[in-house]
Design brief:
There is one protein chain. This protein is mainly beta and 468 residues long. Strand 27 and strand 28 form a beta hairpin. The termini are far apart.
């Protein structure tokens, strides 16, 4: 027991001596002391907030984009639509991240039909990998003002996109039908004049996450005022976008949208005509726009009609007069078309057709066929019809002999077509359009041809033939 106590005393004495020697500092041979910092406590998982992989998260559904954009601790929720804009601005997002979720972040939002923002809260589930937010889902906007419990839930996944920062180099790329002037200079100063004749100007400041803080002044219009918010740019599904969303001190909002895609609304505004596009839907329905005409084939559930329209006064809805044959009775009728005009690349067509016999038809869900799925020409053999390299047509179709015919004037793979048929009850001259496409069962030619007599449509050839 004595030896043990003695040993402890020696160790204690040596420790004290060592401390005393370090404090003297007069001996040049003595090593300098090493400062030992107290260990940094390891934070618990709930203390570490996940970082957002991007400033912009995007989801596409039926041609409509929904976006979440982050600027500091502010979150901007945006869904631009032809029916109106769904907008939201929520603050102090980091304080509302709990267990991989954004929980009831406070702010303001407006629905498509609302004219002003109202108090609400935003929630979302986050997909986190290595402490990085890769995507968001189950987005919820919920009212916190007034009676009722209005709620909007978006269940789709919003994924990250790469933000574009060299926006001053893109002024010539935009299809800016909504702006008579638009420019961002090398110093990141924006100037523009929009369709409401608002003069817009202000500086943009690039942030670390590759979006821009926007301080925009609107003047000489109903929206005149000073607005603060965010501007961002990215590419998605082959289209490059530039957008902004800003608010004034009273939560009035301004937005802007430009892209490098010429939509059908842009085309109507700039040229007075729809672009040549081949749309297809279920049950064999098709619609072809070319020049100032629209050709509709209802397939197994509707008639066949051709419509002509003048340069419209408004580009959001097309109204056109025409004629055709009903389904299934092939009754000749006059027809009027009312169709919302697509503003986005993936917009699905819908429309109403009012017939002169007081009946109605409608269509929806028609999708533009990608140019990569269209044939450059319709040259070749299609069942018993032959189209030569020079566009001349021969052979037989629909039980008739083709005495003459021609395919001319290809635009975006859609050609004008003329046939003269003999030797059958449908003999006569037919005119319309033809387009070749890759179908599920092979290459096919789609025809929309009509024969007139006495100024009215009396017969038609509509449908498709497979390549031999």
């Amino acid at each position: 027991m004595l030896k043990k106590n003695l040993a402890l005393s020696v160790v204690y004495a040596l420790t004290l001596a060592g401390l005393t020697a370090c404090g003297g500092g007069s001996d040049s041979g003595t090593e300098a002391p090493v400062a030992v910092s107290p260990p940094t406590p390891t934070p618990t998982p709930e203390d570490v907030l996940p970082e957002f992989a991007s400033a912009t998260y995007v989801r596409e559904n039926m041609g409509q984009l929904t976006e979440v954009v982050l600027l500091g601790e502010d979150l901007y929720y945006v869904s631009f639509s032809e029916e109106g804009n769904l907008l939201g601005h929520f603050t102090q997002i980091n304080e509302h991240i709990v267990d991989g979720k954004i929980v009831e972040a406070a702010g303001f939002y407006k629905m498509f039909v609302d004219t002003a923002l109202k108090a609400g809260q935003f929630s979302a589930e986050l997909t986190v990998s290595n402490n990085i937010v890769d995507s968001m889902t189950s987005l919820t906007l919920e009212s916190t003002s007034g009676p009722g419990s209005e709620m909007v839930i978006s269940g789709g996944i919003l994924r990250t996109v790469i933000n574009i920062v060299d926006i001053s180099a893109m002024n010539d790329d935009w299809v800016a039908a909504d702006f008579s002037e638009f420019n961002i200079d090398a110093g990141l100063n924006l100037t523009a004049v929009d369709k409401d004749n608002c003069k817009i100007s202000g500086p943009l400041t690039l942030q670390d996450n590759n979006v821009f803080a926007a301080s925009l002044s609107y003047s000489e219009c109903d929206a005149a005022g000073q607005y603060e918010g965010v501007l961002w740019s990215y590419s998605f599904d082959g289209v490059t976008y530039l957008k902004w969303f800003a608010l004034d001190n009273e939560n009035n909002t301004v937005t802007g949208l430009l892209d490098d895609f010429t939509s059908q609304q842009d085309s109507l505004a700039l040229t007075g005509e729809l672009q040549p596009v081949f749309y297809a839907g279920s049950l064999g329905s098709t619609l072809i726009s070319k020049g100032n005409k629209v050709y509709y084939n209802g397939g197994d559930v509707g008639g066949q009609y051709v419509f002509t329209y003048p340069a419209p006064a408004t580009v959001s809805v097309l109204e056109a007069e025409g004629e055709g044959l009903t389904w299934p009775t092939n009754t000749a009728v006059g027809a009027s078309l009312t169709m919302p005009v697509p503003k986005s690349k993936n917009h699905r067509l819908s429309g109403e057709i009012l017939l002169s016999n007081d009946n109605e038809e409608s269509f929806s869900g028609l999708q533009a066929v990608a140019q990569s799925s269209l044939l450059a020409t319709v040259t070749g053999s299609w069942d018993e019809m032959i189209i030569a390299e020079d566009g001349t047509v021969s052979g037989n179709i629909a039980g008739c002999v083709i005495s003459s015919g021609a395919v001319t004037n290809y635009v975006a793979s859609i050609a004008d077509m003329q046939l003269t048929l003999t030797g059958c009850g449908s003999a006569g001259d037919f005119t319309g359009v033809a387009v070749g496409a890759i179908a599920s069962n092979g290459e096919a030619i789609f025809l929309n041809l009509f024969r007139e007599s006495g100024g009215s449509v009396v017969n038609n050839i509509n449908g498709s033939l497979l390549r031999d």
